[in-house]
Every structure is written in structure tokens, then in C-alpha cells.
Amino acid sequence: MSTATHTGPGPTRNKLALAALGLGAFVIGTAELVIVGVLSLISDDLDISVSTAGLLVTAYALGVSLGGPVVSAATIRLPRHTLLWAALAVFIAGNLVAVFSAAFGLLLAARVLCGAIHGLYLGAASTVATGLVAPEHRGQAVGLVFGGISVSTVIGVPLGTLIGQGLGWQATFGSVVVLGALALVATLVCVPRVEHRGGESLGAQARHAFHPRVLAMLAATVLLMGSQFIAFTYLTPFLEDVTGISGGAVGAFLLIFGVFSAIGTFAGGRFADINASATLLVGNLVVIVAMAALWAFGSNAWLVALALAGWGIVGFGVTPSFQLRVISLAGEGADLAATLGASAANVGVAAGAAVGGWALAAFGTGEVPVVALVAAVVALPVVWATRFLKVPRVPAPGPAVAGEDGVSGTVPVATAG
Predict the structure, then answer these.
(1) Is residue 8 scored above 50 in pLDDT?
(2) E-strand stretches of 4-123
(3) I need a surface site. Which of 121, 159, 317, 399 has the fewest CB within 10 A?
(4) Backbone dihedral region of 244: left (phi > 0), alpha (psi from -120 to 50 degrees) or beta?
């Protein structure tokens, strides 16, 4: 087998491979979030309440948070390339079940399954992506994968919602199946095999993946993501009640956030390569400023738009840094730990939504950003402290490279074929 050359993002085939991984993430991100746009359609068609239909969102999040690590542990010895296409195949099957499901229970089970595959895919894609590029470009590689998630919020979710409104919610899931099939073909054709330490036992992987330094990084992820979703979950009522906009204008403001989130994720990969720890700290500070601006100037539409743009840049822009730090800190447990990042983010999303709901009921819409501000301030010292976590030495085969923070380590090697 020939070894891939690590020059910049890599040769053309590696660039195509990263694009294929990003496409898979786009499909998965669309499937996760598009459900929000068709909840009322599902509610009417299955004769259930909207709140009951909302359990489909919770089921997916639980699948990511709990099912992802479990499935990753069960498949830890499989080659990452095999795991990628197998995950996409199961994801397609899960969405096919949704297309033909006439029972809410079956649809709920399909969402849990797809959520578990979501975490598995992102973990495997992250480790493969970092193995396709030189060490100094690993953040960009992770950014390209997670950029697919961000782009799905701007393109996939609105289009999927329109399809559902025009042809029925089953057609929305059908479109996900078609896109998933394209991503599967692209993965089989474009993604090369990447050597990994799959020979490690599950126990050995777990010892590294659940090391205190990794858990500390995951805790920072939960806190920072949670602080954002306190406000983001209830951003629409905030825009309507406090900023005083409605209808299409709300969609325009949400689009501002979505577009800048996509830009931020791709840019965040580059900053992660420069200094992931500093990127996280700056991102946390910008979130604090954005929350303060929303609270203080929420009635000024122009300042709110500016705050959303700044928040959008860092909101998902910190994701590559979080993922890169988790993978690096886990060392020989990187394959398992890569899934934990998505799990931690979803724990933060769920916790943030719950706290935001409490703040909304207790203090009113206008005060939700200040609760998010307090949470972001609480996260700041934790995020700051993670910069002192040191990447372990990884005694794996292959040439030694300078790991993040200047610690010697090794990276996977991409192979053709």
C-alpha cells in the first residue's frame, strides 16, 4: 500500500475524500434538524399533539448522547473506512423506516437509531479526516467535516422543510435517503483507508478516552454549548417579543446566524490549527459579549443582527477546536473519544434548552439572554483551564510529529486503496 503524501490539505484524492466526509455530515445534520420544520405535519398526520411529536427531537439527541458511544465501543475494532460506509448504510435504512412508518413508536425508534449513527459517523469521520492531512492541518480537516453540519442548517433544513410542506413529511425523509445514498457512493469511491490503532482493546481505548483530561475537555464542551442553547432555543420568541419583528424577518435573522455559523466552522478549523485552546477562549469571550448585547440592546434590530453575526461566527466555530482537543487529549483512545465530543455537545444542547425553558417561564423572554450570559461566564474559567491539559505521547507506529501544544505524538497514516 502506498502512503499518502501530507502536503497542505493533501493530494486531490484526499481533498475529494474530505468533501465526501463533509457531504455525509451535511446529510446527517439535515436529518437531525429538519424534523423541527415538519413537526406540525407529523402531528396532524399521526394524530398526536405537537408536544408529543417533539419527542422525536429528544429521541435523536438521546441517540447521539448515549447510543453513539455505545455503538462506537461495539465497533471499535472495525476499520474506520468500513465503519463510515456501514454507518451511512444504516442511517439510510433508518430514514427509510421513517418514510414508510405509520406508527409513532416506530418513527421514534428510527430517530434513536439515526441519532446513534450520527455520533458514530462524526467520530469516525473526524479520525479519518485527521489521518488524511498533515498534523498542522488537522483542525481544517475537522472543520470541513463539521462544516457539513453547519451548511445543513443554511441549505438542507430550509429545503427539507419546503419539500415536506409541499409533498408531505415522508418526502422530507425520502430526500434525506437520496442524499444519503449519494454520500455513501462518494465515501466508497473517494475515501481511502486510514490506518488506525484498531488493535487496542475496548478497555484500553476506554482508559484513554475517559481519562480525566478528556473528561475535563468534554465538561467545557457541555458548559459552553449549553450556555449558547439557553438563548438559541428560544431565539425566535426573543426576536418576536423583544426585537419586535415577525414573519419573514425572523427567518432573515435566523439566516444571518446560520450563514455566519457556516463561515465560522470552516474558519474555526484554521484557527484550531494555529491554537485550539486560544480559539476556545476567544470564542467563549465573544459568546459573553453577544449575550450581553442581546440583553442590553434586544430592541434594536440592527444591533441584534450584528450580535447574531458575531455569535454565529464563534457558536459553531469553536467545534473544530473542541473536537481536535478531545481527539488529541485521548491519545490511543482517539477512536472512541471522537464520538464523545458529539455526545457532550448534545448534552449541552439538552441542558441549555431545559435551562432556557426555565428562564423563559420564570423571568420572561427578555431575560433569557442574561441567563445565557451567566452560564457563559461560568464556562469561561473552565475553558481557560483546559489550555493547561497536555496531549499524551502516543507510542504508535509511524513517524513522530509535533502534537498540539508542542507535545510529541503520532498521527494516523492515510493509505491509497
Answers:
(1) no
(2) none
(3) 399
(4) left
